[in-house]
Amino acid sequence: MKLLGTLTSPYVRKVRIVLAEKKIDCEFVLDSPWLEGSQITRYNPLGKVPVLILDDDSVLYDSRVIVEYLDKLSPNKRLLPASGRERIHIKRWEALADGIADAAADALLESRRPDGERSPSWMARQHGKVRAGLQALAAELGENLWCQGTALSLADIAVGCALGYVSFRHPDIDWRSEHASLARLYERLLQRPSFAQTVPQD
Fold first, then answer.
1. Residue 185 in domain
2. Of 11, 38, 73, which one is at a domain's C-terminal end?
3. Would you say 185 and 147 are in contact if contact means Cβ atoms under 8 Å apart?
């Protein structure tokens, strides 16, 4: 298999962490849809990463689709229950975390528009979504060690990737001091090689 993506995307990071946690061999190919000559649109008509090319040359895209496939591919260390209420709760954590990353990415892209085309109100709206999402994550986590249950799950991976991305692209949002529970969770996650080796970088 081949994973196509960037070192900055929180969604690519999520897939890379799942691959590492489940010990699945997969070649990682750096590619960005923003670069001339990118192969991303050849595989994903939406021009987004990550893209997973399977051994039979079929293609999966969207991190939520990819991680679910990978979790079922290998039975060791299940990160997402096959069914039931716990599965729905984990998927809800993932949806909220991905939504925070979406808003953070939208704010970043808007900030890079030329002078005169930028919308301060749009950026403020996205920052508001990020802050509201972080508040909801912190309230849900409370004093628990993990987002769901008593061990690492896809919920923790998704949340960790969103937190890392906010720190990387929006250092002015000081979620660590505002939400001690999230800071503790992220520091715990960074002790795992899968997280420490995939910290976002340009």
1. yes
2. 73
3. yes
Burial category of 97 from C-beta neighbours within 10 Å (exposed 0-12, middle 13-18, buried 19 and up):
buried
Range of the domain at 16: 2-73
**Distance from C-alpha of 188 to C-alpha of 180, rounded to nearest angstrom:** 12
Q: pLDDT 10s per residue in the chain (202 long)?
A: 999 999 999 999 999 999 999 999 999 999 999 999 999 999 999 999 999 999 999 999 999 999 999 999 988 889 999 889 999 999 999 999 999 999 999 999 999 999 999 999 999 999 999 999 999 999 999 999 999 999 999 999 999 999 999 999 999 999 999 999 999 999 999 999 999 999 999 8
CATH number at residue 148: 1.20.1050.10
C-alpha distances (whole Å) from 9 to each of 29, 149, 200 are: 13, 27, 7
In a domain, 184, yes or no: yes
> Could you identify the residue written with the tokens 């996650």?
189
Phi (first) and psi of residue 147, to 5 degrees: -60, -40
Q: Does residue 198 sit within a domain?
A: no
User: CATH number for the domain including 66?
Assistant: 3.40.30.10
What gap in Å lies between CA 191 and CA 202, rounded to an integer?
22
